[in-house]
Design goal:
about 180 residues, alpha+beta, GTP Cyclohydrolase I, Chain A, domain 1, GTP Cyclohydrolase I, domain 2, 2 domains, two-stranded antiparallel sheet, elongated, binds guanosine-5'-triphosphate, binds zinc ion
């Protein structure tokens, strides 16, 4: 739960710390704005994806389901700067599928926290495994980290790609290839 008052105090201190005048017109509402923004961008801390993924439907056909190009925005926990990109999620059902939008909701729940990309990838895969007990899961995230592009090493255009494979996707190279070619198209 975001403590709005604490965040406001912290932002006031930060602005003082960088030598700004917290009372000037453009900045006086900034602590309140950022506290409200934190409720949004860190809102995933109060949530689990399980409640979303509980929306399920029976299926006869246990072929791969892939939801690709799910745009996400998260915050790098080392610098509190955004990293953002696309998530691609596939699973092989085991008699049940979840609502398509629930895959994107799952991404949002775990993206809206201070994160590292590797953990975000694992948490999405874990949630799918817990909820659906699928025959396989594969998650790939492609993202640009602003802590790498606008500061520090400053490498604009560099991309970080992370993957997690579980079950059939771990053992079956052909399935992995199929995932990769479907993601690329
Ligand atoms: N593995 C991983 N590293 C990340 C992620 N986001 C940021 N980082 C890295 O976290 C590291 C933090 O390194 P530090 O040396 O403690 O911090 P720093 O002095 O600001 O480092 P530089 O970014 O190299 O200037 C950096 O190498 C970042 O690139 C992420 O999602 N996953
Ligand atoms: Zn960072």
């Amino acid at each position: 739960m975001v403590d709005k008052q604490k965040v406001e105090q912290a932002i006031r201190l930060l602005l003082e710390g960088i030598g700004e005048d917290t009372e000037r017109e453009g900045l006086k509402d900034t602590p309140d704005r950022i506290a409200r923004m934190c409720m949004e961008i860190y809102g995933g801390l109060d949530e689990e994806a399980d409640q979303h993924l509980a929306k399920q439907f029976k299926v006869e056909n246990n072929e791969m389901v892939l939801e690709k190009d799910i745009t996400f925005y998260s915050m790098c926990e080392h610098h509190l700067m955004p990293f953002y990109g696309k998530a691609h999620i596939a699973y092989i059902p085991n008699g049940r599928v979840t609502g398509l939008s629930k895959l994107a909701r799952t991404v949002d729940v775990y993206a809206r926290r201070p994160q590292i990309q590797e953990r975000l990838t694992v948490q999405i895969a874990d949630a799918l495994e817990r909820a659906l007990n699928p025959r396989g899961v594969m998650v790939m995230l492609e993202a640009e980290h602003t802590c790498m592009t606008m500061r520090g090493i400053k490498k604009p255009g560099s991309k970080t790609i992370t993957t997690v494979t579980r079950g059939d996707f771990k053992t079956d190279r052909e399935l992995q290839k199929q995932f990769l070619s479907m993601v690329k198209d």
